[in-house]
Amino acid sequence: MDKELTEQLKRFYTLWRETNAIYEEWAKRHGISYYELLILFSLDENEEGCTQKEICDQWILPKQTVNSILQNLLKQGMVGFEVMEKDRRNKAVLLTDSGKKFADDIICKLQQQEKEVMRRMGLARSEALLQNTALFNRLFREEGDNDGNP
Q: Which Pfam families does UniProt cross-reference here (predicted)?
């Protein structure tokens, strides 16, 4: 049983890396980096803006990586920064009109491809994928809570 579980983990790791590589390649074909894609997702989802810290937390990205990408997007005129009313120490990152158009276009293309994949998988397999991933994540967290480490 342990050998079978080890082999399943190897397959899981391979699929995990392959999935990341597929998304990296997709982003590259569309003229952006994988991390830029993730940041555009965050900004597009939050029309009222979000902080750099929120982006870092959402995607588990280093602060320097996020800052560097945002500075590049600022130079391209795709984002702007506004002091937040509720916490004047932080700035919200907002898409400009051209940034919103670009993000909407990129994300729409990606989601069209993802929807087509799910359509081809079928509703039952797509739902099973989501349920099983959620179950894996929940059980992994539970095991982490029981591993004796803080």
A: MarR_2 (PF12802)
